[in-house]
Specification:
The strands form seven sheets. Strands 6, 7, 9, 10, 11, 12 and 14 form a seven-stranded antiparallel β-sheet that branches. A six-stranded antiparallel barrel has the order 16-18-23-22-19-25. A three-stranded antiparallel β-sheet has the order 1-2-3. A hairpin with a 2-residue loop joins strand 4 and strand 5. The longest helix has 9 residues. The protein is built from six helices and 25 strands. It is mostly beta strands. The protein is flat, with a radius of gyration of 25 Å.
């Protein structure tokens, strides 16, 4: 529950001087004012004004009315103004104080929770519990579950368990099943291994033989012997600020998959890509997603899409293949959790469904 209180705010944007010189591009039909609604995100609000919503801090952070532009609440009235030819968005002010308009049918009582920058429900599990192991060596060095005195194969909430490894008494830890091994489809390089969150234990006491007695306090799924044990991030260590920026120039990568296991994703779906910290990427980087252009086969002067042509034509007329159609940018992804060779990103804008294998690159 504490994660819902975390505010994911974009306070600054790192852009080059040439980008700063360009004026922000407003969308046609943008509103002069907007009343913040419950369920809004800052990204969605900026999308009503900007052609490039990820640039929204440039619309806010130069506004002297807003010391903390992410502190926006349902019921606040936002106004667009112009200063020296630049658009600025800020709260309605009157006599130096914020104006909050209320009506009998539209009243917001709870001012404790400002609206988030991103939909916390979509990325929260990845920040709090989900994890990727860098390599098999990391997996070998992690503490692991030995079992329980009751000899349960599957262990459940409330069970007393024993861990091989030294844990800190009083601290909570996540329990993980080893999952899918990710390899680069072109080079075969090991990129990492999925660690599937299974539950939470609290360390009770150290025992002889480098062992720890723990209590299973929560089950996400069945906990098994051999499951790995890793610390859960403390609330104060959870990312509270993302800095959206255009990603640096990278060698184009691709989407490995969608963690929700669907064939295609749209706005606010999570994707996993094969680029990470070693490519100089950080949380907040924004990338283009490109749909591959269609492959073509020519038979007797007739052009066909390769995927729709017969196996015979694909095999015996392969020498007649034309260059594929050009790839097309269809979505924008913002990275929110970056490992060395892999990163999780959230689809923030999408003109079409995004699938595994689609290219990701800087723009």
């Amino acid at each position: 529950m504490y994660l819902k209180q975390t505010i994911f705010a974009c306070l600054l944007v790192t852009v080059g001087q040439s980008a700063l010189a360009d004026q922000l591009k407003l969308k046609q039909g943008y509103p002069d004012s907007y009343v913040v609604q419950k369920g809004d995100t800052l990204w969605d609000i900026s999308g009503q004004y900007l052609a490039e919503p990820w640039l929204w801090p440039r619309l806010w952070n130069i506004n002297p009315q807003i010391a903390n532009p992410h502190w926006i609440y349902p019921g606040d009235v936002l106004h667009l103004t112009w200063v020296n030819g630049e658009p600025r968005l800020g709260k309605e002010m009157q006599g130096g104080k914020h104006v909050i308009r209320l009506s009998p049918k539209n009243r917001y009582e709870n001012k404790a929770n400002p609206i988030p920058t991103l939909p916390i429900s979509e990325i929260g599990p990845f920040l709090q519990t989900d994890h990727i192991l860098a390599d098999s060596q990391q997996q070998k060095t992690l503490p692991y579950l030995l079992g329980s005195d009751q000899k349960h194969i599957g262990m459940l909430e409330g069970d007393t368990l024993y861990v091989q490894g030294s844990l800190t008494p009083g601290q909570v830890y996540g329990i993980y099943h080893p999952g899918v091994i990710y390899k680069d489809r072109e080079t075969g390089e090991l990129l990492g291994q999925e660690a599937i969150f299974a539950g939470v234990v609290r360390a009770i006491a150290h025992l002889d033989g480098d062992r720890t007695k723990v209590t299973l306090t929560h089950n996400q799924r069945e906990v098994l012997q051999g499951d790995k044990v890793m610390p859960l991030p403390a609330q104060e260590n959870m990312p509270a600020v993302f800095m959206p920026r255009a990603a640096p120039a990278i060698t184009p990568g691709y989407i490995i998959g969608l963690p929700n296991k669907t064939r295609g994703g749209g706005k606010f779906d999570v994707v996993l890509i094969n680029r990470g910290a070693r490519d100089q990427l950080v949380a907040g980087d924004v990338l283009d997603v490109k749909r591959p252009g269609g492959a073509l086969v020519t038979k007797n002067g007739n052009v066909q899409y390769k995927e729709l042509s017969s196996v015979f034509n694909r095999v015996f007329y392969s020498s007649n293949n034309k260059a594929p159609l050009p790839s097309e940018a269809i979505a924008r992804v913002m990275l929110f959790k970056v490992y060395d060779k892999l990163s999780y990103g959230l689809i923030m804008q999408s003109n079409d469904m995004v699938s595994s294998g689609y290219q990701v690159t800087h723009f």
